[in-house]
Amino acid sequence: DKFKEDIPRYMARHKIKSGMTGWAQINGFRGDTSIEERTRYDLYYIENWSVLFDLKIIFLSLTPNVLENAY
Fold first, then answer.
1. pLDDT higher than 80, residue 16
2. pTM of the entire structure?
3. Helix (H) or strand (E) segment spanning residue 4
4. Which residue pairs from 24-33 have beta carbons closer than 8 angstroms and sit at least 24 positions apart in sequence?
């Protein structure tokens, strides 16, 4: 409830089923990072979704830089 009150449009990110990776995660926002920044990236993904965008996320998820920082 606190995030819903403090972060604009926070609940919109819960309308989309989460996947194995995401725009926020490949940009370094995972784990103990800013929920505001993760929400901003998640909303960008929702507003700009396309098959090509998903393919870009998959491709970038497999790059060495992202893989070596994966949990």
1. no
2. 0.73
3. helix 2-6
4. 25/61, 26/57, 26/60, 26/61, 26/66, 28/69, 30/71, 31/71
